[in-house]
Design brief:
Length: about 350
């Protein structure tokens, strides 16, 4: 009678994995395989307990010694992409707190509408029609805002091109990086000198969970948001190294956002991970008030994203995509015309970022 038992071998990885198996014998597991599995399990539980402990300690600290929320009353706040969607919601939320709003957008009629809505709330809102991807125009913009309204205390880098294409399109790639990456860099470089001289200020970069989870239809968009997040982290580190600790840099990572019905129609979701703009604004305003470095919206996604990206095989991300999305329809030429950021592509796909040519 054949005995069903597991066999162990002691050779290490240097001899290569087990490639030949005798069909008359059970599968053989190497010692290093077992050690790796044990290490992975121990690391996983240590990681979970460490993160839970850190989160609980942070909660208790903020509960007992919760700092006073920063006041934005009378502060000059620069918001890009202010003409519609999330940018407009940011302007209105800041206006309700008594801030002075510099509304920046490439679409002049929409931007003027936002500024008028801000004025209706009893605070000053000034529209500036600028293509943030052009370095020269951004530098002139910040100089003009400082002259008109005063030094910029809060910068919200919100303007973005969000696209998914069935093919590689050079025009779209250039526009995406020009608006989503170069634009925020030009703006941060333009506002930081004054912030450093005053040793106060706050920069908010609206990134995406696409920078933390591989979503293949959003390949270019995810690449730009990953670049933006990394740049924000580097700016924060440089400020901390220079002991300019009253200047805060926050990266905000919302999930798929309900900012365009035409865009949401392209996705068929098995699990609802769509967040409302109001939730993103509320979480971002909390981050501004209490100087958070990073925000993931919804917050419940933060630790699963760390787990999938840092500890799981790459196939796990693919399986997660299959779990979340039933179907993702790449827009055809006709559908693209109805997307709110379609016009940005032609206006921002230039090669010369300094002069916009």
């Amino acid at each position: 009678m054949r005995q069903n038992k597991m066999e162990f071998v002691t050779e290490g990885w240097e001899n290569g994995p087990t490639t030949k198996r005798d069909l008359e014998k059970p599968a053989m597991i190497k010692k290093d395989h077992i050690l790796f599995i044990i290490y992975g399990i121990v690391y996983f539980y240590c990681f979970i307990f460490w993160e839970l402990g850190a989160a609980f300690s942070s909660f208790l600290w903020r509960l007992i010694f919760r700092p006073e929320a920063k006041s934005l009353k009378g502060r000059v706040c620069l918001v890009t992409g202010a003409g519609r969607g999330l940018g407009r919601e940011f302007c209105l939320a800041l206006a309700r707190e008594g801030a002075v709003i510099a509304c920046v957008d490439i679409n002049e009629p929409n931007n003027r509408t936002t500024a008028a809505m801000v004025e209706d709330l009893g605070v000053k809102g000034v529209p500036y029609t600028v293509n943030v991807a052009i370095k020269k125009d951004v530098e002139e913009l910040v100089s003009k805002i400082e002259k008109d309204l005063g030094p910029v205390y809060l910068l919200i880098n919100n303007a973005a091109v969000i696209y998914s294409r069935p093919r590689v399109d050079e025009e779209f790639i250039r526009a995406s990086f020009n608006v989503n990456v170069f634009g925020p860099i030009w703006l941060m470089n333009a506002v930081l000198p004054t912030m450093k001289s005053r040793n106060e200020g706050h920069i908010v970069n609206i990134s995406s969970t696409a920078s933390k989870l591989v979503i293949s239809p959003l390949d270019i968009y995810g690449a730009t948001k990953t670049s933006l997040s990394y740049m924000g982290n580097c700016v924060r580190a440089n400020l901390q190294l220079a002991n300019e600790n009253n200047i805060v840099v926050t990266n905000v990572h919302p999930s798929i956002m309900n900012s365009s019905e035409d865009y949401l129609k392209l996705m068929s979701l098995k699990v609802n991970i769509v967040v409302e703009m109001e939730d993103v604004v509320k979480a971002t305003m909390d981050a501004i008030h209490y100087s958070y470095d990073e925000v993931v919206i919804p917050s419940i996604m933060k630790y699963p994203l760390i787990l999938v990206n840092e500890m799981m095989p790459s196939r796990t991300g693919t399986k997660l995509m299959r779990l979340l999305f039933e179907k993702w329809t790449l827009p055809n030429d006709e559908q693209q015309k109805h997307l709110p950021w379609n016009d940005l592509v032609k206006k921002c796909s230039f090669r010369d970022n300094v002069n916009g040519q």
